[in-house]
Amino acid sequence: MVVSLVGIAFLFNDSPRRFEKVSCLVFSPDGEHLAVAKHDARDANTPLKRYLADVCRTVSVLHVPSLDSETVIEQDFRRGNQGPAFRTYRYVGNALAFLPDSKTLAVLELGGGTVKIYDVETMKNHPFTNQELLALNFSVQADRGVLVTGFDEELIVWNLTSKKMLQKLRTPSNPFMRAPLIEFSPNAELVAAGGYDEVKLWSVADGSQIASLDGLTDQDAIRTLAFHPLAQQLVVSGLPWLRVYDFSGSQQAEIIPSGYWIHATCFSPDGKKLAVAVDQQIDIFDGTTWERLRTIPCSSSVACLTYSPDGNYLATGDYEGNVILWNAQASEPLRIFEPHGRRPAARWKLASVLLVIWCAISYWLMAKNKKAGLGPDLILKD
Q1: Which end of the chain is more exposed for a tag (fewer CB within 10 A), N or C?
Q2: Inter-residue contact 292 to 275 (CB < 8 Å)
Q3: Taking the model in full, what pTM does it have?
């Protein structure tokens, strides 16, 4: 009877994903494709289901604006209860970046490691460089041909074409990610590196430190960085604040969000709007006056967001594993799509069905023998 119950538990146990989120979104430069990194830990800490890896990351490319054509670039699995995969799942930085041709995608290895370059059409890949490379975060300024990788308290700036190291920088530490937050200025002359309680600006040309942002303390818990595409300003967010700094490190303004948990920030290409994912909504601010223009309610907390190159669309990824494409002008959802994720383990479902059938037949035979007066203690004699 106990065995039968176990089989039934296997059969009907279709637990929802314990963790699931779209962790990174990026548009191609031509605006025709949207690359998506989706993390899920469907079976983490679920009894009797330890046969699957705890953390799965699926990288796929969607066609814009229909979102009806999906190409899976890679799918990787890691144990998620310990080690770098869990840390990267919980505190994911930049993991994807398109290169200028819109057909080549840079993908950071799950759990940290090398940066792989994928051909989106053929799905063939090769490492970005043959040199030893360990990264937990990276950023690309494709128009200027530079890439920066971060690990522990070190940034390395690379030339995208020659694959040569341009600069090596010492940066603020972030004990949660073991890598700083990284963001390029629009002209790629500066790179911002954010630790847990400090942000510094560095010159890409000579590796010199330009500024350290004023007024940050160990209580600020820095979450995101976003350069203004036109003005010499950097928006930094924490819990629960948004501040605007100039390139000298002086604070210019403070923005008041409508909630507490700030998950992501992004400017529109023309710099007129700043989108902020906060709690279960999106705040849209004026990119000059910093006044809140409107608040868009969402069904789930937004984990990441990005504007299309032409500014017509705003793409968001949430903590339910969905990608939503919005009309950036009217703030209305156009498409909702759930990208590819972990596939169910059909072989275990089949084994559960067979186990239940076997237990049912055994129980029926036992009941029939008992009714006929036969039992396990019966001794057959000639």
Answers
A1: C
A2: no
A3: 0.80
Instruction: Kindly state whether residues 340 and 351 are assigned to the same domain.
Output: no
* Beta strands 190-194; 137-141: pairing state: unpaired
Q: What tokens were used for 306?
A: 């990005």
**C-alpha dihedral, 314 to 315 to 318 to 320, nearest 10°:** 130
CA dist 371 and 193 (Å) reads 77
Domain assignment present for residue 382? The answer is no
> Which comes out higher in pLDDT, residue 23 or 84?
23
State yes or no: cis peptide before 240, omega within 30 of 0.
yes
Of 178, 149, 181, 152, the residue nearest 165 (C-alpha) = 149
Domain span at residue 211 reads 18-346
Answer whether 281's CB lies under 8 Å from 258's CB. yes
Identify whether residues 336 and 213 lie together within a single domain: yes
Are 146 and 166 a contacting pair, CB within 8 Å? yes
pLDDT digits over 136-161, tens only?
Answer: 778 888 777 888 888 777 888 888 88
CA 178/CA 70 separation, integer angstroms = 32
Question: How many domains are there within the chain?
Answer: 2
Same-domain status, 230 and 352: no
Judge residue 290's burial from the number of C-beta atoms within 10 Å of its C-beta, 0-12 exposed, 13-18 middle, 19 or more buried: middle
- 36-54 pLDDT, tens digit per residue, is 999 887 554 445 444 344 6
Convert the pLDDT of each residue in 243-273 to its tens digit: 999 999 999 999 988 888 899 999 999 999 9
CB atoms within 10 A of CB 144: 17
Give 131's contacts (C-beta < 8 A, 6+ positions apart): 163, 165
Work out the mean pLDDT of the chain and round it to a whole number: 79
